[in-house]
Design a protein that fits this description.
Number of strands: 26
Largest sheet: 14 strands, antiparallel, barrel
Shape: elongated
CATH superfamily: Outer membrane protein transport protein (OMPP1/FadL/TodX)
Number of helices: 4
Strand order of the largest sheet: 1-3-4-7-8-11-12-15-16-19-20-21-24-26
CATH class: Mainly Beta
Structural class: mainly beta
Helix content: under 10%
CATH architecture: Beta Barrel
Number of domains: 1
């Protein structure tokens, strides 16, 4: 679409706006269903995506146990969040388990150009709202009464691994590029894992990327101001699909059969999410609009070792490396029903992500009977896939170093969760263990100076900081 056509379209829209337009008894199954429904309700309350990330639109924290280890979890993968990190790891999860949690994020983006003009943006508020969250549910079929299917574990996840929520003043220096951008994308992950033998497990999950009207904005939105001062908004939603396949190989175990060395390999396919919506100018619809959002394929290799693993203590070290194929994101051109095209070149590049994490556990210690306690820490290095020429402040992307710390508390046996709820599963109405995991991450972004952008108002230096707190609650049956 030429500049004349765009100006004519905006003028037309202004005129339109001016005119106004493990137990298998029936009792157990009913109780289990009640707990599942409770978990789903909590998920609906929490799972309102509002993400930001060092790596463009990717958001890695998907469970507080992994978050506390710098997201280095693909070789450990020993709770229901394996649905996200390594589906094959679900074969390590006994019985039925559900996890629900959320992330509280704060931070800001600072910009200053060579002329001294500056502005500040944020991620939907001082605390990102609504918060990106996660829900996982897994069930070993043997625990549900199908003994012949005990090598099989099923799972369902609901996460927000890709998304964005940024906003800037409408009178800011680059308002012709963007004033706000949101992408409340969710991933529905039905999963199956199969234990081939004691050393090898395989897993596969579907990735159904979509939007929901009750989650965030319910659609992708990008707003800006035209050169003539009109408010321009592009919006769209749709559904796309991909898949995740993985394996978990455990060549070494201790005398109790617990892993002391594990290797995880995970492949996530590319997915294309077709977005259909509208172009609005000053609130009036000008044309239908559509585009394709391309999500990258991701290769993950991970290794974990336990230098200490006894009945009393466990110490794990893990290294994860990922290759993220962002080069498939070549453009986000907007096709209008009027026949015009709004070009939005991307030309991103593929990048590496490296994560190192550790976890130290005290098991049923004398100083806290009936509880397992874990301390965690980690480091993540994330590269920037977005070139200067196509950089958009609505998708903030800067190289970053992330430091993580975390803790986990698992109540079982004769313990009481929060001093109130029995954790030993003495009644069919109660889980046999309840866990609480918490984590904190500080994302240290490297300053970035953008030059030669297709929109000169975007050129300048960007600085950002993000702090994130994560919490997950775990129920084990």
């Amino acid at each position: 679409m030429s500049r004349v056509e765009i100006v004519t379209t905006i003028k037309t829209a202004k005129r339109r706006a001016a005119n106004g337009t493990q137990r298998s008894t029936p009792v157990f199954n009913r109780t289990l269903l009640s707990w599942m429904l409770c978990s789903v309700v909590m998920m609906v309350v929490f799972l309102l995506p509002s993400n930001t990330s060092a790596q463009a639109i990717r958001f890695q924290p998907q469970g507080a146990a992994a978050t506390g280890q710098g997201n280095a979890f693909a070789a450990q993968a020993d709770d229901a969040s394996a649905i996200h990190f390594n589906p094959a790891g679900l074969t390590q999860v006994d019985g039925v388990q559900s996890i629900v949690g959320t992330n509280l994020m704060g931070g800001s983006i600072k910009y200053k150009n060579s002329a001294g003009l500056d502005t500040r943006g944020d991620f939907g508020g001082s605390i990102a709202s609504p918060p990106p969250s996660h829900f996982f549910l897994s069930a070993n079929l043997g625990a549900l009464g199908a003994a012949t299917l005990s090598p099989v574990t099923l799972g369902l996840g609901l996460t927000s691994p890709f998304g964005s929520n940024t906003r800037y003043p409408v009178d800011g220096p680059f308002n012709t590029a963007v004033t706000s951008a949101t992408l409340p994308l969710i991933d529905i992950k039905p999963t199956i894992a199969y234990k081939v033998n004691d050393d090898l497990s395989l897993g596969v999950s579907a990735d159904i990327y979509t939007f929901a009207s009750f989650l965030g904005e319910g659609q992708a939105e990008q707003k800006r101001v035209s050169s003539g001062g009109a408010s321009v908004e592009l919006s769209g939603k749709g559904t796309g699909a991909g898949a995740t396949v993985s394996l978990l190989y455990t060549p070494l175990r201790n005398n109790d059969g617990k892993p002391i060395a594990s290797i995880g390999l995970v492949y996530r396919t590319q997915a294309v999410v077709p977005l259909s919506g509208a172009l609005l100018v000053n609130g009036a619809k000008v044309a239908d609009a559509s585009t394709n959002l391309v999500l990258p394929q991701i290769y993950t290799g991970a290794i974990a070792v336990w230098p200490v693993r006894t009945d009393e203590r466990e110490w794990k070290l893990e290294l994860d490396m990922e290759y993220v194929g962002w080069k498939s994101n070549r453009d986000l051109d907007i096709h209008l029903s009027s026949g015009g095209v709004i070009p939005q070149p991307q030309q991103w590049k593929s990048v590496w992500v490296v994560a190192i994490g550790t976890e130290y556990k005290w098991l049923n210690s004398a100083w806290l009977p009936h509880w397992d306690v874990a301390l965690r820490s980690g480091y993540t290095r994330t590269e920037d896939p977005v070139p200067d020429t196509t950089f958009n402040p609505g998708t903030i992307s800067l190289p970053s170093n992330t430091l993580s710390i975390g803790a986990g508390f698992l109540c079982k046996g004769q313990g009481r969760f929060l001093g109130l709820v029995p954790c030993g599963g003495a009644s069919v109405l109660l889980p046999k263990a309840i866990g609480l995991d918490v984590a904190f991450q500080e994302w240290f972004y490297e300053p970035r100076t953008v030059a030669g952008n297709s929109n000169p108002t975007v050129n300048g230096t960007y600085q950002a900081y993000v702090h994130l707190g994560a919490v997950s609650i775990k129920f084990m049956f």
